[in-house]
Structure formats: C-alpha cells, structure tokens
Amino acid sequence: MPDAGETAILTEGLRKSYGQVLALDGVDLAIAHGTVFGLLGPNGAGKTTCVRILTTLLEPDGGRAEVVGLDVVRDAAVLRTRIGLAGQYAAVDENLTGVENLEMIGRLYHLTRVGARARARELLELFELTEAGERIAKTYSGGMRRRLDLAGALVARPPVLFLDEPTTGLDPRSRQGMWRLIDDLVEEGTTVLLTTQYLEEADQLADQIAVIDQGRVIAEGTSDELKDSYGRERVEVVLGETADRAVALRALAAMSSGAPECEGRTVRVPIRPRPGILAEAVRRLDEAGVELEDLELHRPTLDDVFLSLTGHAAEEREEEEQASGASAG
Amino acid sequence: MAAVPAIPSGQEPLVATTFAEKLRLGISDALVITRRSLLRVPRQPELLLGFTIQPVMFVLLFRYVFGGAIQTPGTSYVDFLLPGILVQSIAFGSTVTGVGIAADMQQGLIDRFRSLPMARSAVLAGRTIADIATNWLQLAVMIAVGYVVGFRFSTSVPDVSAGLALLTLVGFAFSWLSALIAMGLSSVEAAQQASFIWLFPLTFVSSAFAPPETMPEPLRTFASDINPFSLWVDSLRHLFVGTPIGDEVWQGLIWAVGIIVVFGPLAVWRYRKVSTR
After folding, report:
1. What value of ipTM does the predicted structure carry?
2. Cβ contacts of residue A103 below 8 Å, gap of 6+?
3. Does any CB of chain B come closer than 8 Å to the CB of residue A185?
C-alpha cells in the first residue's frame, strides 16, 4: 500500500446501508496520486454510493475515507475545495447559458466576480463550447451538457476528480471525446476516480481497476493483471465446411484447460498460454485431417474477467436491470 | 485539449473560518442562487403563467358565479373576496419553490451544490428569496385583475403597504414549507401535487371565500378560531378595505414568522442529508 504522501484517495472498511439494503460492505481502496482508478461493476454494485461518500454527499455508516489527506466527514468543508464531481446526470442549470453556469459555480467557490467570469471563458474555450457559451443550456446536446458539466467540475482545478459514469448515454463519438479529455487531465497530474459499467472504458482509461459487486471489491489490479488472473485465454477455431467437429475437439482435447465451447462452425478451446501454442493447434488439427478456415489466439477481455468473478456478464446484467427499471446505487 | 489553466494566486477557492467570514460568504452564496433563480423567470414564462391563470380564474369565478349567492354584510363581495384570494394564491404560488428544488434534485444540481464549498443554507435561502419576486409578479397580476372587476383599496398607503408586506412574509413562509416537502419527494410532479392536497381544504375552510358564520360545525370553529389562513385573510381585509378587527394582524404576523422559524431550519437540516437517489 502506498504511503499517505502518494495516496490521493484512501478508504478503509467503508460501509453504508440504506435501510435493509447493504450498499457498501467494507470497501478498502488506496489510489495513488496522478492515476486513473476505475471502479467497475454492474448497476447497484455500490459504485455511486462510494463516489457519494468520497465527495461528501453521503456519510458512511462505518469505516473511514480520506481524500488528499482530508477526512470526508470531519474535514468535509475544506475537502470540497479540492474535489470536482461530474456525474451521469449532467448537473447543469438548463435555464442558464453555458457562461452563466460556470460563472455561478466559480462564485460558489468564492472566486471574485471578475475571476469567475474569466475562468468560465477559459473553460468554455477548453471544452470547445465558446460559441455555445451564450446559449441556454436547454438547447445543448447530450455531449455538450456532459462537457459543460465536466467544465463545472474543473472550475477550481481540483487535484482529485470524481466521474460517475461519465459516458453513460453518450454516442460513441462523444464517448471518445470524453476519454481524450480524461487522458489530458491525468497527464496534467489530476487524480481521477471513475465509475463505469463499460469494460472497454475501464480498459482504455484506468491504470488500476477494482471490480465491485454487491458492495464489495472482489478483485483489484491493472487491466492486464485482472485478465491474466481471471481471464481465460483460448484458441478460437473456425472449421471448414466439411470438417467434423467431434474430430476437431478430440484433436484439441490434449491441450485444452477446460470445457470447449461450440457455436456453429466455431470452436473455442480454453488453454494455458505458452509459446508455440498456435502452431501446436494447427499441427494437431492437420494430423487429424480437419479442414480449417480460420484460427486465432483469443486474449481474455474484461468481460471474461467479470464473468468468471461474478458468474454473470457485466453488460447483460446492466440491460436486465435497466429493463426492470432498477435504480443505480 | 490544452492544459487546464491554473487559477491565479489569490483566487483559490475560499473556505470561511471565522463567523463573520461565514456570514459574508453565506450571504454571497445565497445571492448567487437568488440570481440564478431569477434569471429563469423570463426564460420559463410558462411557469409563471401556470401560477397566475388559476387564481385569475378563481377571481372571475367567485366574483361572477358564486359571488351573487354569498352574503357578506358590510362589504361588497369583491372587496371581501380579493384579500382572500390573494392569501390563497400566495400560498399556492409558493409551491414554485418546491417545484424548483425538486427539479434541481432531478437534474443533479443539488448534488453539485452540495459538493461545493458553499453555505449549506444558501441553496434554500437563495431560492426562497428569489421566489418572493415571482410571488410579487403574481400579486401584481391579481390586483390588476381585481381592479378590473371592481375591487378598490379603501385604506391609507401605510395600511396597504403593511398588507403587502404581510402577504410577502406569508409567501416566504410557505416557500420554506414547500422546499421542505419537496425534498422528501422524488419528482417535480409530486412536488407540484403535494401542496395542493392540503392547501386546497385549508384555504377553502377559512374566511377567504365565505364568512365562517355561514358554515356548519365543526368547520365554523376551525375556520374562525383555528385556521391561520383566516387570520391572514382578516388582517388583509382590514389593511386593504378597512373591515374592523381585533389583534388578528399581530397574530397573523406571529404565525408567519413562526412557520419560518420552525420550518426554515428543518428544511436546511433536511437539505444537508438530502439524497437525489
């Protein structure tokens, strides 16, 4: 665990329940300065609760949390000058223009009137909203609102930024743009904690990932570490039209490390990674006289990690919950 | 993207440490919120329209449909009616506060405000102060309509001013109440409906539209001795058209101040814990 000087965010045994529902069940995190930390989990896993506690919106029932060395309960007032929060509900005042929105936030950070206005202009330019700055935010697109929201979170140039599902509901282009922005911020030394349901997003952005499910961190590490420990590397074979699947499976059985999956003419055989494994697969299939159309080594995805950790796929569950109208936690 | 520019030194976010500083920054925060709430008024004209049409309809309805059937000894019905409808509309009008707070909650703005180093009371104070202005707009429309249908002030300028001040205070009190209720609800629609449920009976079972003496027990006792609305309506009638009364004005004042003193801190306390989801 990094010492206090290097740690931007630290939680120990963080607990929170809403009535009977246990939202956080002892969460320990240590997040180094200047890194992106991804909190990955399905809806209702406790991601948002965690962010709400760290941003002083919610008091924990047990455990403790520090952000830049400040206790989230005891030092809440000072801490609020050091953090920025942008969430899945772009928190912009729809009846104000872009400039007015940012000026208001600047004034609430107690910048001077002139200072707040100058800051608003700077940030609008940075987020390519200068032209839209005089327009009422009601007329903004979803992506523009997110950008304005993120600009609002950066008014005080906080050393720690919390992004709660920053790209949920954005189209792919806006999502890419948001990712670039986050990259740039981290390059400048900002520590970012982001929550996401998108494995791809965590993979792209996060230095460290904690997989959270039912209020508990069930795995933690870099994307690659997680894939190596929990993912399943496999050989994916697409058989030729005349090939016999049973023969192919028999030929590959000796090298497989688990039960193979079949789907049409595609056969997936889990393996333990080692050099020359593809050549071996080709040789075995060749010797058995199996006609091949395609063959590739499949690196594990975070999807696999998630599946093997929780027994369910992350995004499938998300869709289910959205369909049943469940709310985030 | 270029680097996020640093904040010039001497311009860093401020946290109040002394009481005087807390007060100064708190007032500044509240004024920032007041300004943002006022900016929305001309940009959301439908909001004000919604809160003006109903009372104007009531004025016309009671003046011309029911008015002829209601006996009000000593005063014309329109002079009797207008102070009553003004009190009722200012109470209903104050639900804009709750609707605004509910909308802020729904849009995540309350979360943003609560994550800022601003005074905890400022969001509610700023909003309720701004809503005094919307209440005044509503009052101006109502009094104008009143004049068209035959209402006339028949007292001195200081009396009328005192009446308007009392109305303002009552509106301010109901704004705090409405804010508190809205924070317990989850949607704008709920906030809109919530106040109607109890304000409707409360304002009608009062001296606003008909003399309580004409009502059956126990409504009569409630309307004439218990309901604070009757105190405000009677005070206003006295201050606007000179109907004789006892010490209703003082009692009405105490009720209004009492509501603010009790529900203001309660609302701020609720705000500190309010959770959007």
Report:
1. 0.87
2. A116, A117, A120
3. yes
Over residues A22-33, the pLDDT tens digits come to 899 999 999 999
Whole-angstrom distance, CA of residue A326 vs CA of residue B97 = 29
Q: Which chain A residues touch B7 with a CB distance below 8 Å?
A: 111, 115, 119, 156-157
Radius of gyration of chain B from its Cα atoms, rounded to whole angstroms? 21
DSSP state at residue A88 = S
Owning domain of residue B168? 19-275
Look at A93 and B107 and tell me if their CB atoms are within 8 Å. Answer: yes
Helix H or strand E encompassing A137: none
Using the beta-carbon criterion (under 8 Å), do B40 and A327 form an inter-chain contact? no
Query: Using CB atoms, which residue from A58, A181, A184 is nearest to B275?
Result: A58
Task: Give the torsion through C-alpha atoms of B63, B65, B70, B74, to 10 deg.
Answer: 30
Whether B107 maps to a domain, the answer reads yes
Q: Of how many residues is chain A composed? A: 329
**For B40-91, how does the pLDDT look when each residue is reduced to its tens digit (9 = 90+)?**
888 888 877 877 888 888 888 888 888 778 888 788 888 999 999 999 999 9
CB of B214 within 8 Å of a chain A CB? The answer is no
CA distance B189 to chain A (A): 18
Backbone φ, ψ for residue A64 (5° rounding): -145, 165
Q: Is it true that the peptide bond before A300 is cis, omega within 30 degrees of 0?
A: no
Q: Kindly report whether the global pTM for this prediction surpasses the value 0.80.
A: yes
Residue B3 lies in a domain: no
What backbone phi and psi angles, to 5 degrees, belong to A59?
Answer: -95, 135
CA angle A180, A321, B181 (to 5 degrees): 90
In angstroms and rounded to an integer, the radius of gyration of the C-alpha atoms of chain A is 24
Residue of B1, B40, B112 lying closest to A126 (CB–CB): B1
Chain B positions in Cβ-Cβ contact with residue A77 (cut-off 8 Å): 15, 117
Q: Is B153 helix (H, G, I), strand (E, B) or coil?
A: coil
Give the closest-approach CA distance of A258 to chain B in angstroms: 43
In a domain, B178, yes or no: yes
Query: Which distant-in-sequence residues (6+ apart) come within 8 Å of A243 by Cβ?
Result: A265, A290, A291, A292
Determine contact, residues B166/B256, Cβ cutoff 8 Å: yes
Is residue B14 in a domain? Answer: no
**Strands A70-71, A62-67: pairing kind:** antiparallel
pLDDT given at position B180: 93
Please count the structural domains in chain B: 1
Query: Tokens at residue A305, please?
Result: 């990690």
The amino acid that residue B221 corresponds to is T
Burial of B48 (0-12, 13-18, 19+ CB in 10 A): middle
